[in-house]
Amino acid sequence: DKYSKQLDDLNKSSNKKQKIVRTNQSNYKQIQDFQNKYKFKIQEKVIQSQNSNDNSKINTLNKEIINNLPKNIPKIEMEQIKKLVNNSTNTIYGCRNESSALEEFKKIKKCLTNDKQKKFEYKILEDNQTTFNLIGKIDALTEKNEVVEIKNRMKCLFKELRGYEKPQIMTYMYMNNSTKGYLVENYKKNKINNINIIDICYEDNYFEEKILTVLIKYYSFFKLFITNRYF
User: Fold this and answer.
1) What per-residue confidence (pLDDT) applies to 231?
2) How many of the other CB atoms lie within 10 Å of CB of 131?
3) What is the Cα–Cα distance from 130 to 223, expressed in whole angstroms?
4) Phi and psi at residue 75, to the nearest 5°
5) d(C-alpha 169, C-alpha 198), whole Å
6) How far apart are the first and last CA of the chain?
7) Model pTM greater than 0.85?
8) What residues have CB less than 8 Å from 139, skipping those under 6 apart?
9) Residue 18 has what DSSP assignment?
10) Which helix (H) or strand (E) holds 185?
11) How many CB atoms are located within 10 Å of the residue 88 CB?
């Protein structure tokens, strides 16, 4: 908060092109700041893309938004804007289609699941008066206590557990004391769900060796960073 305020004060005395868009703001606010900085308008198009339930149309609209941006935007900031546009639309699309993908999963596996996401909290460590917790929400749990994680794909089914998705579902399985889980891919085309289910077995000591050690290192870095203004 302290550094955010300093940056806001600095921005007030800078010309438009020197202003820095803070990344600890909402996607909506960041897009607004970029619009003011480079004098373009994409908010209406982004909302139009968010309101679509057709992933092909979303991809087309997002590509159109990016292609029509001013050409004088530096490459780094152009990448930021592109990421903001995609995140703003893909997140809403994914949330909107989670329930239908879950229903398809239950039909295929002939099982029952809980109806709402389940929240978990795991204490990583306690340092003086600071508690460092890992918090996650599981999309669903089967009646056999199996973790279900749903991924709504925008372009195609990957048909494999991606490297960046494995730590997520393994951690959920550890926090829930589950030995088995499912990554449910859903690619919606012509309003039809195309489902691919990847069975996952928990790997012994995965969380302790692959996740916990890294989180403790991260906390050490964060503590150093937050207490050293010259870092």
Assistant:
1) 52
2) 10
3) 10
4) -55, -45
5) 11
6) 16
7) no
8) 98, 102, 117, 148, 149, 150
9) G
10) strand 180-189
11) 21
Q: Residue 165 and residue 158: Cα distance in Å, rounded?
A: 12
List, as own/partner pairs, every contact residues 174-179 make where C-beta atoms lie below 8 angstroms and the sequence separation is at least 24, other chains included.
Answer: 174/202, 174/206, 174/207, 174/211, 175/120, 175/122, 175/134, 175/136, 176/118, 176/120, 176/138, 176/141, 176/145, 176/147, 177/145, 178/141, 178/145, 178/146, 178/147, 178/202
Place of tokens 């609209």: 61
Length of the chain: 231
**pLDDT by residue for the chain (231 residues), tens digit each?**
788 888 888 888 888 778 889 888 899 999 999 999 999 999 899 989 888 888 888 889 999 999 999 999 999 999 999 999 998 888 888 777 788 899 999 999 999 999 788 898 999 999 988 899 999 999 999 999 999 999 999 889 999 999 999 999 999 999 999 999 999 999 988 888 899 999 999 999 999 999 999 999 999 998 888 888 665
CB 193 within 8 A of CB 179: no
In angstroms and rounded to an integer, the radius of gyration of the C-alpha atoms of the chain is 21
Q: Is the dihedral of CA 91, 93, 97, 101 positive or negative?
A: negative
Q: Which token pair is 207?
A: 């969380």
Tokens of 116: 């709402």
CA atoms of 95 and 88, how far apart (whole Å) = 12
